[in-house]
């Protein structure tokens, strides 16, 4: 069982002593930007007449104030330094604050940051002894198009406003304080070495010392010691008997870094968990630790009904990963958001693969691009120690590129430059430059298509698998704009092919039907290395979730997501008519349904394809079948006679199952028949 209590807010840089500052803070609204002129930063003046619950955005019900379209807010809280920290420096960390924040302690400015998702870290000087008054001013522009903001709604609106949600302004991730000695570890970065026999550790330090050393130990392995030079140290950490991390065996090592100042000062001790694994693209396939990998992913935007971008607690972060796993998904694409790092730690422990990407901008200007690009090193530093993260995403659907990457060389060059930056900072992971289309420099050729026309879907999937899908039928904007798969002439290099957004339907019944048939069509193609379904949960007006906004299961008309996303999937070779009427036939008619078996397990599937009519023993049968790993079989013919209607007038349902040799069910789907008059 994974424990959620007492986990450090930043597991990749954890100290044993820390104190949460989440909870009630004094709050003042400043819609007219009067606070600075009137000296609210001192903390002893201003209309501190409200209380806000941190870390919930001020628009959210959980904040207690629900302040909408407020551009500026002020926070105030008194903090008493613990007696046992009296000889140490005190630092405050805000995990996320949108968008621009300034911090004062007893009226003295100590920090200023803009970025929203990267967070804030500052030292709290003891100008007034052991008690200090902390004031934080936050500016979140109403017009967010020129700052990284992801799915937060903007006025004026983004071009993609139809899929945006209530903003999350102000402090929206946990706040804590921790003591550090004079010389301290600023960051600890860990990457597996090329042959997976150990790690390379990179340490950045804060403070000044001319004779500092750092020792690092991996679990019970002997510690390795090296000198700190100009605030930096790099150490190779060998492991005698390496144990690799994988979804089936999510084994984590604990790395302890101990910084010795070289004099009479205190040591600083920081720990991080991490894992040994290799993700790579070999030709058109993905491999994890040398074994072929098929991705069954889900897009997760990380919103909650009462908290907006903020989870109601650590247990909710874990629960969402468990919900994804229970629905059969093996990867979560964390969409346009820097999530609470604790969720990545839980993913490490669960064995859930992760795709992480920064929040998008809405317009292409030098300032907006610089703000977006600055998030890439922050993202890699923040999440780089987590073995669950296998893909860095960058842009999404040309948001912030004005849908002109193919038409404008400057925009294409921006894509290439930022992709090369991510590769340079972290060569151990795959990078997607612009998810959806208009690729320039990418490790994966991914594509997004939403359509409820299954004939069109069949054609798009077939052309993608054949490598002839050059133009994507996107239907963007008022002119129903289509977009190219590549913004530049591709280099001819083979790359993995992924669909990374699909899923349609206005009702739960329609969504379940399209989920089943569209996913089955993707699984028919061996040349496609996986998919990412949109999405995990409903959000506000967007009812595209596998689960409701409050995380309840949906009635999907008999479709069970865990069946759709199994290792072994049965694929009836037909284009269905409509929900509840996959096939039209008459009672007593003999029909032939050709069924292929897609198997993405590591060992061959050996067993039987069985069929029966729901609620009766009518005309059941089976066929022996063997399928190699990562192969879709040739279709097998299921010949059967259509029975009369089921009770209550429902049409007959043909159930198809893949049974292992011990009769364990490995796969399941069904075909609904609508009876026609003779």
From TrEMBL:
<dbReference type="Pfam" id="PF00703">
    <property type="entry name" value="Glyco_hydro_2"/>
</dbReference>
<keyword id="KW-0378">Hydrolase</keyword>
<dbReference type="Pfam" id="PF02837">
    <property type="entry name" value="Glyco_hydro_2_N"/>
</dbReference>
<feature type="domain" description="Glycosyl hydrolases family 2 sugar binding">
    <location>
        <begin position="19"/>
        <end position="145"/>
    </location>
</feature>
<dbReference type="GO" id="GO:0005975">
    <property type="term" value="P:carbohydrate metabolic process"/>
</dbReference>
<comment type="similarity">
    <text>Belongs to the glycosyl hydrolase 2 family.</text>
</comment>
<dbReference type="GO" id="GO:0004553">
    <property type="term" value="F:hydrolase activity, hydrolyzing O-glycosyl compounds"/>
</dbReference>
<dbReference type="InterPro" id="IPR006103">
    <property type="entry name" value="Glyco_hydro_2_cat"/>
</dbReference>
<feature type="domain" description="Glycoside hydrolase family 2 catalytic">
    <location>
        <begin position="281"/>
        <end position="504"/>
    </location>
</feature>
<dbReference type="InterPro" id="IPR006104">
    <property type="entry name" value="Glyco_hydro_2_N"/>
</dbReference>
<keyword id="KW-0326">Glycosidase</keyword>
<dbReference type="InterPro" id="IPR008979">
    <property type="entry name" value="Galactose-bd-like_sf"/>
</dbReference>
<dbReference type="InterPro" id="IPR051913">
    <property type="entry name" value="GH2_Domain-Containing"/>
</dbReference>
<dbReference type="InterPro" id="IPR013783">
    <property type="entry name" value="Ig-like_fold"/>
</dbReference>
<protein>
    <submittedName>
        <fullName>Beta-galactosidase/beta-glucuronidase</fullName>
    </submittedName>
</protein>
<dbReference type="InterPro" id="IPR017853">
    <property type="entry name" value="GH"/>
</dbReference>
<dbReference type="Pfam" id="PF02836">
    <property type="entry name" value="Glyco_hydro_2_C"/>
</dbReference>
<dbReference type="InterPro" id="IPR006102">
    <property type="entry name" value="Ig-like_GH2"/>
</dbReference>
<feature type="domain" description="Glycoside hydrolase family 2 immunoglobulin-like beta-sandwich">
    <location>
        <begin position="220"/>
        <end position="277"/>
    </location>
</feature>
<dbReference type="InterPro" id="IPR036156">
    <property type="entry name" value="Beta-gal/glucu_dom_sf"/>
</dbReference>
């Amino acid at each position: 069982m994974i424990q959620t209590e007492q986990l450090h807010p930043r597991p990749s840089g954890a100290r044993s002593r820390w104190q949460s500052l989440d909870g009630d803070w004094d709050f003042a609204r400043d819609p007219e930007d009067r606070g600075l002129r009137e000296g609210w930063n001192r903390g002893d003046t201003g209309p501190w007449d409200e209380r806000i619950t941190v870390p919930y955005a001020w628009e959210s019900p959980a904040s207690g104030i629900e302040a909408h379209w407020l551009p500026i807010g002020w926070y105030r809280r008194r903090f008493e330094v613990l007696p046992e920290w009296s000889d140490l420096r005190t630092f405050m960390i805000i995990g996320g604050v949108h968008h621009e924040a300034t911090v004062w302690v007893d009226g003295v400015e100590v920090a200023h940051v803009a970025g929203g998702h990267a967070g804030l870290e500052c030292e709290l000087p003891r100008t007034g002894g052991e008690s200090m008054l902390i004031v934080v001013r936050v500016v979140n522009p109403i017009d967010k198009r020129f700052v990284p903001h992801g799915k937060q709604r903007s006025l004026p609106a983004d071009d993609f406003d139809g899929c945006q949600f209530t903003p999350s302004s102000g402090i929206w991730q946990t706040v804590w304080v921790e003591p550090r000695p004079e010389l301290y570890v600023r960051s600890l970065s860990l990457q597996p070495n090329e042959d997976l026999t150990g790690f390379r550790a990179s340490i950045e330090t804060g403070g000044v010392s001319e004779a500092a050393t750092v020792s690092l130990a991996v679990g019970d392995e002997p510690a390795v010691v090296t000198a700190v030079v100009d605030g930096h140290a790099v150490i190779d950490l060998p492991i005698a008997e390496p144990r690799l991390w994988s979804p089936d065996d999510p084994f984590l090592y604990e790395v302890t870094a101990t910084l010795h100042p070289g004099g009479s000062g205190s040591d600083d001790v920081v720990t991080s968990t991490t894992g040994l694994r290799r993700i790579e693209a070999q030709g058109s396939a993905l491999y994890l630790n040398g074994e072929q990998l098929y991705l069954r992913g889900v897009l997760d935007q990380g919103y909650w009904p009462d908290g907006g971008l903020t989870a109601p607690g650590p247990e909710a972060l874990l629960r969402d990963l468990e919900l994804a796993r229970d629905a059969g998904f093996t990867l979560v694409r964390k969409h346009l958001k820097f999530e609470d790092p604790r969720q990545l730690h839980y993913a490490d422990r669960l064995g859930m693969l992760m795709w992480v990407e920064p929040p998008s901008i809405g317009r292409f200007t030098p300032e907006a691009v610089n703000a977006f690009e600055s998030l890439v090193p922050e993202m890699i530093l923040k999440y780089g120690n987590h073995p669950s993260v296998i893909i860095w995403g960058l842009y999404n659907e040309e948001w912030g590129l004005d849908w002109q990457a193919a038409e404008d060389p400057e925009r294409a060059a921006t894509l290439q430059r930022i992709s090369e930056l991510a590769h340079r900072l972290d060569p151990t992971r795959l990078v997607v430059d612009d998810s959806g289309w208009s690729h320039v420099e990418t490790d994966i050729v991914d594509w997004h298509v939403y359509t409820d026309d299954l004939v069109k879907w069949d054609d798009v999937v077939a052309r993608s698998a054949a490598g002839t899908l050059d133009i994507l039928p996107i239907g963007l904007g008022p002119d129903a704009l289509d977009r190219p798969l590549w913004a530049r002439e591709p280099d001819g290099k083979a790359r993995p092919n992924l669909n990374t957004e699909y899923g349609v339907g206005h009702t739960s019944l329609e969504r379940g039907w399209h989920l089943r048939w569209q996913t089955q069509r993707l699984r028919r193609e061996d040349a496609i290395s996986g998919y990412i379904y949109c999405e995990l949960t409903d959000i506000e007006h967007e009812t595209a979730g596998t689960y409701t906004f409050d995380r309840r299961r949906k009635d999907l008309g008999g479709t069970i997501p865990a069946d759709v996303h199994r290792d072994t999937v049965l694929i009836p070779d037909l284009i269905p008519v409509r929900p509840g009427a996959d096939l039209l036939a008459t009672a007593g008619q003999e029909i032939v349904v050709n069924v292929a078996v897609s198997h993405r397990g590591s060992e061959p599937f050996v067993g039987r394809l069985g069929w029966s009519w729901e609620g009766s023993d009518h005309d059941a049968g089976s066929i022996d079948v063997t399928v190699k790993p990562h192969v879709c079989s040739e279709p097998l013919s299921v010949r059967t006679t259509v029975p009369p209607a089921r009770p209550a007038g429902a049409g007959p349902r043909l159930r198809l199952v893949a049974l292992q040799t011990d009769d364990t069910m490995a796969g399941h789907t069904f075909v609904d028949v609508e009876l026609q008059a003779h």
